[in-house]
Amino acid sequence: MEVESDIDAILQSIRFLFVDKMDTKKERRFQLLIGDFFPIPSLRSLAFQSLLITAFPADQFLPGDGYNGYQDDARNLRLLTRGCVGVYRLVSIEDSMVYVDKTEASDDEKKDFRESALNGPVEVLKPSAKEWEVGGLRYFNPAGCLRHACKCVSSGDSEIAQMWVEENTLVLDHFMEWDYSEETDGDDDVDVDGENNVMDENGDGIGEKGKFGLKTRVLITFFEDQFVYQERSVNTRKCKNCTGCSYEYKAEAWYAKM
After folding, report:
1. CB 187 within 8 A of CB 210
2. N or C: which end of the chain has fewer CB within 10 A?
3. Which helix (H) or strand (E) holds 34?
């Protein structure tokens, strides 16, 4: 009986090792999801991204038996290249949507707002070493410039996008600024912090003072035969007729390879 008790204690300790590791990874993804917008990635992240998009063989860059302690880097290279391609089914999804007046959206409202791909199978493709197509969810191409900016001539809306790689995660930051330059100063603004700048849950504004727009961060993290999609969007509009135009939306969906 004492031997069985010791074995149970050892097995429980081993389980805690795996639980702690998963909790650490989950905490890392959470911090990345809520972190600073449009950050400058670390040199290590950019170096790893360079290896990834040039399809550099891991055994040439990380020589030696077992990659000399760089097993995680070799695994991430594999997961983000040939390991991620395939068809995945939706396992679970959790999302929330809160309007600027703190009221929560109904299940029907959240369902209407979701990306259509969040409701069914997703096929992950690699058209090239520099590209990822994740079904109807997102398209990633982090090669070239770190940040892209443009302005729509017809609407006047400005758009900024940044894509990069963090370990086994594809990261997208996107900001679409709504143009209200033609409106008069007398128009009522959405005003939560007293400076015409709606605040999110961290007390951060959507951008500079007086700016309105849709700020979105997306993470797609690949594991063995599965991936998790995370999204956080904060939309701030200048609207005096309702409180439904400005909101914060969060989603986390798990997919398993079919």
Report:
1. no
2. N
3. helix 2-34
pLDDT in tens, 159-206: 888 999 998 999 999 898 887 766 655 444 444 443 344 444 444 443
CA distance 256 to 91: 7
The sign one gets for the Cα dihedral 117, 224, 57, 74 is: positive
Q: Tokens 């695994």 map to which residue? A: 75
How many C-alpha atoms does 213 have within 13 Å on its Cβ side?
A: 20
Interaxial angle between packed helices 71-79 and 43-53, expressed in degrees from 0 to 180 and rounded to the nearest 10: 50
Instruction: For residue 200, give the amino acid letter.
Output: D
Candidates 183, 121, 126, 143; CA nearest to 54 is: 143
- Per-residue pLDDT tens over the stretch 99-151: 888 888 888 888 777 776 677 789 999 999 889 999 888 999 987 777 888 87
DSSP character at residue 119: G
- pTM here is 0.75
Burial of residue 214 (CB within 10 Å: 0-12, 13-18, 19+) is buried
Q: What single-letter amino acid sits at 119?
A: N
The torsion of the CA quartet 149, 166, 25, 168, rounded to 10 degrees, works out to 120
Task: Find the length of the chain.
Answer: 258
d(CA 70, CA 22): 19
The structure tokens 């005003």 sit at 191
Other beta carbons less than 10 A from residue 80's beta carbon: 24
Are 160 and 175 within 8 A, CB to CB? yes
Side-chain-side CA neighbours of 145 within 13 Å: the count stands at: 6
Quote the tokens at residue 114: 């979701």
CB atoms inside a 10 Å sphere around CB 86:
15
Q: Which residue has the tokens 């200048």?
A: 238
